[in-house]
């Protein structure tokens, strides 16, 4: 891995999907008030890849985690800091008022401002889609904003030296199998889960994360808004229950059922 890699990884505070999914009254967002909040699996993998590429800060590499959200979204930044990111930036805003174009513009503004301050991010990593609203647009919109090449849906990312400088090697699954892309840096890559195993934060990591100062910013422009009509929940999956009987009298029916399922050999 080349020395001195700088990665900006973007995360979003989203409702935990492990419980029943509910929508807000205006059907514009997922209601997380009863489920709690977390980081999506795609973005957890993006954080893991960012820390691997930067060597957890070794050899001059640096992973910076970025989020757009209210004050509570700092929890997701601290979680990323606890597993190896070294810096954090928080655009403090109501994320529900932002659409994909707004989010891409704000991330681009952070990248450009950091670059002007001497912190050039070789790679920007994002989850392939938003876990709550299902938007797949931010990565491509961001690449256009920055004028960078983009790869969507990679599961692993590595670095190598090319004839014209460093390149990112992004591997993912396509319609006909594994696909590998080599793109010059700087670049934008969106990540899907499945290629790496996100690490769990240690007690030491959590303690260190509490001490890292978080850069806070306000919006760089007036938001256009999500401009969606509304979100819809899929209909519940139908289910049925067959009662085979009670007590010893149900034994013949149980034997018949397991034979139908092919569990018992004849």
SSE arrangement:
Layout: E1 6-10, E2 14-15, E3 22-23, E4 30-31, E5 37-38, H1 41-53, E6 62-69, H2 74-82, E7 87-92, H3 100-116, E8 123-127, H4 138-146, E9 150-162, E10 165-174, E11 177-184, E12 187-191, H5 203-211, E13 215-217, H6 251-260
Word description of this protein:
This protein is α/β, with parallel strands linked by helices and 266 residues long. The protein has a single domain, classed as Rossmann fold. It is 25% helix and 27% strand. It has 6 helices and 13 strands. The strands form 3 sheets. It has a 9-stranded mixed β-sheet with strand order 11-10-9-12-8-1-6-7-13, sandwiched between helices. Helix 2 packs across helix 5 and helix 3 packs across helix 4. The termini are far apart.
């Amino acid at each position: 891995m080349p020395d001195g890699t700088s990665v900006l990884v973007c995360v979003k505070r989203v409702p935990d999907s492990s419980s029943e999914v509910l929508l807000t009254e205006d059907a514009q967002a997922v209601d997380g008030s009863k489920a709690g909040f977390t980081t999506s699996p795609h973005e957890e993998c993006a954080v893991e890849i960012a820390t691997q590429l930067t060597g957890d800060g070794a050899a001059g590499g640096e992973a910076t985690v970025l989020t757009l959200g209210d004050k509570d979204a700092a929890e997701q930044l601290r979680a990323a800091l606890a597993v190896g990111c070294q810096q954090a930036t928080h655009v403090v805003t109501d994320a529900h008022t932002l659409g994909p174009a707004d989010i891409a513009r704000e991330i681009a503004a952070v990248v450009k401002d950091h670059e002007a301050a001497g912190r050039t991010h070789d790679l920007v990593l994002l989850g392939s889609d938003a876990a709550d609203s299902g938007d797949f647009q931010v990565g491509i919109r961001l690449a256009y904003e920055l004028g960078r090449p983009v790869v969507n849906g990679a599961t692993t990312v590595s670095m190598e030296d090319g004839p014209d400088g460093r390149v990112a090697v992004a591997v993912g699954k396509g319609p006909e199998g594994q696909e590998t892309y080599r793109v010059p840096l700087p670049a934008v890559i969106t990540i899907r889960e499945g290629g790496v195993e996100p690490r769990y934060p240690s007690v030491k990591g959590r303690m260190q994360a509490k001490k890292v100062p978080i850069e806070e910013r306000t919006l760089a422009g007036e938001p256009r808004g999500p401009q969606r009509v509304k979100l819809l929940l899929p209909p519940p999956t139908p289910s049925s229950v067959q009662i085979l009987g009670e007590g010893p009298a149900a034994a013949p029916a149980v034997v018949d059922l397991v034979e139908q399922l092919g569990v018992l050999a004849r």
